[in-house]
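Issue: ligand-bound run for guanosine-5'-diphosphate-alpha-D-mannose - logging full I/O for the record.

Environment: standard queue, default settings, no custom constraints.

Inputs:
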Amino acid sequence: MFVLVHAMIDPLGAIQIGAGLLATFPLIDHWWRMRRISRWRKLEPGNEKTDSPIVVVLPIWNEEKIIRLRLDNLAQQQYTGHWSLMIVDSASTDQGLQIIDTWLNENPNAFSNAPSIVRMPQRLGKTAAVNFALDHIDLESIVVLTDADVLISPDSLNRISRWFGSGSDIGAVSGTPYPISDPLTSAERNEETYRRFYIDQRIGESIIDSTPIFEGSLLAFRRDVIGNNRLDMTTNADDSQIAIMIRRSGLKSIFDSELIFHEYIPTDFVENNRRSIRRARGLQNLFWMNRDLWLSQKEDQFSRILRRQAWIHLISPVLVMISLVAMFAHIGLTMFRIQNGISMPLADIVLAFVSSFSIVVFLMGDWIPFGRTLQAYLRGQSILMHVYLDRIIRRNAAIWEPTQSNRDALLESSKKKKGSDL
Ligand code: GDD
Ligand code: MN
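Outputs:
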């Protein structure tokens, strides 16, 4: 087989095709199957709510800009069961805590239980803040994690509560992002394409077993399953760490496509990229740390899912890089041969032509449907390749500079809404 291909096509072309297929096939195959499953079945919570108290944890660091907005939003929950809010502050240096105090004084009846505020003496990152919160929450509780910069619907706690009713084998539930963005810019259209690709996989994985990838902006889990275990603070994927921890205990970790949170995508290109790189790095670490599961002989669906995701996040980006370098070299070589009248197999001409054509499709991405998918795919891969670089430049990714352009957009839109209400 190899000899045959070799005789037909230049080795550069063979490398381009081989590495390209090994990089893309596992992802497309997985997505395709998960998408089919997600359309064929649906996960729904039971009607019975849990009796366990719910503790909503809101970790904050320097959120003075949007914290009022977020408290307004949380106060709208219609849940009648027992729940309380716990704010975890890690030595914020802004006016955030004073603003919270004022807000609570102005709205004394906003929550049926008085919110608690726990303070960490220093900033150690969000994952550390989640660990700190766990120290203060009773074992029988359901813990909900949510971020300052997202908005959730008044029904969210009701829906979460239904996932944990008696007899349920669900240990953790993740919300689904609903990005709000300006549909006029290409970066955001790509985000939307990527989103469909991403959510289809999460839902399918949840149906066949569990998804290893969670969203820290809105998730819920059973506190007792974590027990005295804590998250690894040196990495930032607190959300997905929880998903895998819960699944390891034998309960399911699922994505709920109807438990939606609204978030703004950073409009600043640099900020958005930095955020994506950080999150991808957290996932890479996580898949590596849990390699015992994907290498295990015990063949269950979850090992298979983890193995696939490990391939997609750790190995594919390297293969894509190799494939792209080979592609450019092969196009160059073919052009050189044509110019100098050197004969070559037809396969080389076809490959170079198709590759050049794909480059055009990629560059025109915005105007053709497939181009957009191609752009979104390559953006994802370039983010993952950047992670390897990021590891060299930045030793610690557990503490980050929060993106501001999404917070500004959130603030701006809420002002507009208020204005139109008057
Ligand atoms: N207490 C505390 N201490 N809170 C923090 C710290 C910290 O050191 N760092 C960040 N936070 C809070 C923020 O105030 C916000 O409420 C939440 O954690 C998420 O921070 P963002 O800055 O908005 O994170 P993101 O949206 O870019 O990050 C996404 O990926 C993370 C994993 O990399 C979200 O999905 C996060 O939930 C997730 O943890
Ligand atoms: Mn955020």
